[in-house]
Amino acid sequence: MKPRAWKGEIPVQFLYTAGVAGERFFTGLRDQGKLFGTRCPECKTIFLPPRIFCERCFSGLEDWVEVKGRGRVYSYTVLHRDRKGQPLNQPIIVAMVKFDGVNGSLINIVAGVEPKNMRIGMEVEAVFKDPAERKGSILDIKEFHAISEG
Q1: 95 and which of 7, 40, 76, 146 could share a cystine (Cβ 3.0–4.6 Å)?
Q2: CA dihedral sign of residues 81, 89, 143, 123
Q3: How many CB atoms lie within 10 A of CB 125?
Q4: Residue 9 in 3-state DSSP?
Q5: d(CA 49, CA 92)
Q6: Would you tell me how many other CB atoms lie within 10 Å of the CB of residue 3?
């Protein structure tokens, strides 16, 4: 099947609020440079991004736990063009990162890795922006870096 691309704009208007769990998650990113998830008191599942109820057993989630910023690449893509279709000077790798013992994942750039060396299962670590640059958004995670093996 030949790949297809949408050219033009899709008019979308929305108002997004982070909610109770999101607000606390983003505050942790901004103020502490840490990832926080919520743990279910019944089934012990840890959710990242955090939620306010367990989607498995519907228990309320009030137990906040720090999630270490190390994870493994679950999926990735290599971008060769920007959002306007223009060629990039350097390819950009965007990956879905899953964390051990956690339900959920985060998506961000992986820097410092050549596309030919990128692989599923690669261990990576979150790199946070300097505290003065953080704004309380997912972009406070500047990127992920590969953890050298050896």
Answers
A1: 76
A2: positive
A3: 14
A4: coil
A5: 24
A6: 4
Alpha-carbon distance 128 to 137, whole Å? 11
98 C-beta neighbours (distance < 10 Å), count: 17
Of 17, 67, 11, give the one whose Cα is nearest residue 39.
67
- pTM reported for the whole predicted model: 0.83
Q: Which domains does the chain have, with CATH numbers?
A: 19-146 (2.40.50.140)
CA proximity to 85, closest of 144, 1, 5, 147: 5
Span 25-66, pLDDT tens digits = 999 999 999 999 999 999 999 999 999 999 989 999 999 999
Length of the chain: 150
Question: Rounded CA gap, 95 and 83, in Å?
Answer: 17
Strand blocks (E) in 2-148:
35-39, 46-47, 63-67, 70-81, 87-98, 102-103, 105-111, 123-128, 141-146
Task: From residue 47, give the alpha-carbon distance in Å to each of 51, 70, 98.
Answer: 7, 15, 11
Distance of CA 49 to the CA centre of its chain: 8
